[in-house]
Amino acid sequence: MLLAAAPDNTVVFTSREASPIPRERLHRRVFVAAGVYNVVWGCYAAVDPQWLFRVADMPQQNHPQIFMTLGMVLGLYGLLYLDVALRPAEGLPIAAVGLVGKILGPLGWLWLAVTGEWPLASGVILVTNDLIWWVPFALYLHDCLPQWRTRYLGKRRV
To answer: Is 130 helix (H, G, I), strand (E, B) or coil?
Structure first.
């Protein structure tokens, strides 16, 4: 990345070429794991859309296509996470949307559990779909936010 000094003592990046982010190898591995997990989960949800309802001892769905569609969406997220693994310096928006979903999903489940719509046993879905990803996604966002700001907002104080 080329740097140019501005009169106000700021550093301006003159190229959009990405430089490495801290812990890049770790972040690549996390997003490969998240990508593979989501693709596999999405495919399984398409093949067996009633699994959660059996595991949580809930009545089977009348319209399993809804859970199949959720699987499709999560599988597509997996492809996006694999893209973050390939280009970690460019993945902030995808990871941010992913983390927000991983926070809002448990909040929605909490509402269903508190109102008695879903049993506590259905919370099994939260552990691997959401909770285990909070720390690594947040760490990634922390590590790549300064570079993203520099690249897209144009300046960085040194």
So the answer is: coil
Packed helices 134-153 and 92-114: angle between N→C axes, nearest 10 degrees: 140
Round to whole Å and give the CA distance between 158 and 33.
35
Q: Tokens in use for 45?
A: 């949800």
Q: Which helix (H) or strand (E) holds 100?
A: helix 92-114
Q: What is the distance of C-alpha 42 from the center of its chain?
A: 14
Rounded to an integer, what distance in angstroms lies between the CA atom of residue 59 and that of residue 57?
7
Reported as a single tens digit per residue, the pLDDT across 10-47 is: 554 444 556 689 999 999 999 999 999 999 999 999 99
- Burial category of 118 from C-beta neighbours within 10 Å (exposed 0-12, middle 13-18, buried 19 and up): buried
- HSE-up (13 A, CA, CB side) for residue 138: 9
- pTM to 2 decimal places: 0.82
State the Cα angle at 80 between 110 and 100, rounded to 5°. 30
| Residue carrying the six token digits 């040194």 | 158
Cα separation of 63 and 29, whole Å? 36
CA distance 47 to 115: 30
| Tokens at 49, concatenated | 């859309």
